[in-house]
């Protein structure tokens, strides 16, 4: 199925945006204003749905006219495009969205036609599937690792780089002992937070010995 | 800029296609998906985390309520989404110089596509059909695709070495440690904030 590459699912959803305005501004603009204020780091709603590798939300105002002799045409609705790349199963992912980030989902999809709310996750899943467009071709460079596996790998890479740098030229017995400490430290280390932390230093940036 | 989060750029582009051309493009994508070796050039570029092409038929735009007006379109639409590393110019330049034949096969059915070579009209076309991202999330914003792949190789080597490292004599450890260093030396680059693009 083209929606999947390995264990990664490529979800594409087009939700029609409401046209009538209950606000001073239209729904599409209200949605854009809301999205502009949502954090994009580890406090992002998608960091809570921790199987998300990458996700985007886009207000698509219209199709594009590429010039004559092509025919100029326009959409009758604007669409909210939701593009997500995540681990595992679609139903489970959408159910997690409804259960774990309900305020965010409400704030976004309340601007869309036919949105049933998240009180009944099954109704939300059914609504999202109704808006789903099958991905025609999906490319995932790394398609056999979860978000957590990638984050853990980056943590190990950083720690190993730092370890090698710090232990250059030391006697083998000392390096072996220090390596044992590194193993224990990494085994106990919390996995890095998805979404990143702006103020967090990587091991390579923290060089107290220099 | 909302199209960018850390080292990743979210690109969206939409192009119209005459509906009679769509089945040929679907067949092309089917073959591309069924035979992974055909994706080798895309994979070897190694700066695309995830990318997709989605064909939305002229009657396929979702209608979820009778009150919503049904779309009445002449064209099917091809939408392209990419999560890539580097700047827009680097990306389009690389696409044009490395993947021109593949890209031409994909976008040739689109109206007024000028071809991916020469690059100037190709860039003009992409600018015309691209639309901006309003919200972009990246689980590992400090890591490029190559960083992730390198880190996974380091983990494999690290796990192999860890299994025996504490049971070896210091002399055996020294030899095994050197072998470990040789194995990981090309993959030890650190992640961090992205350079400022141009």
In short, what is this structure?
With 210 residues, chain A is an alpha+beta fold.
Helical percent range of chain A? Answer: 25-40%
Residue windows where pLDDT falls under 50 for at least 5 positions of chain B: none
Largest interface: A-B, 86 and 92 residues
Nearest-integer average pLDDT of chain B = 92
Radius of gyration of chain B: 22 Å
SSE pattern of chain B, N- to C-terminal = EEHHEEHHHEHH
**In CATH terms, what is the architecture of the largest domain in chain B?**
2-Layer Sandwich
Beta strand % of chain A = 15-25%
What do these coordinates show?
The complex is a heterodimer of chains A (210) and B (198). The mean pLDDT of chain A is 92. The radius of gyration of chain A is 23 Å and the shape is elongated. In chain A, a hairpin with a 2-residue loop joins strand 1 (4-5) and strand 2 (8-16). Chain A has helices at 27-36, 45-48, 90-100, 102-109, 121-130, 147-166, 172-188, and strands at residues 4-5, 8-16, 52-60, 79-87, 137-140. Chain A is α+β, with helices and mostly antiparallel strands and 210 residues long. In chain A, 38% of the residues lie in helices and 16% in strands. Chain B is an alpha+beta fold. Chain B folds into two domains: 4-129, Alpha-Beta Plaits, CATH 3.30.70; 145-187. A four-stranded antiparallel sheet of chain B has the order 1-2-4-3. In chain B, helix 6 (145-165) runs antiparallel to helix 7 (170-184). The chains are: A alpha+beta (210), B alpha+beta (198). Chains A and B meet through strand 2, helix 1, strand 3, strand 4 and strand 5 of A and strand 2, helix 1, strand 3, strand 4 and helix 5 of B. Strand 3 (52-60) of chain A pairs antiparallel with strand 5 (135-138) of chain B, so a sheet runs across the interface.
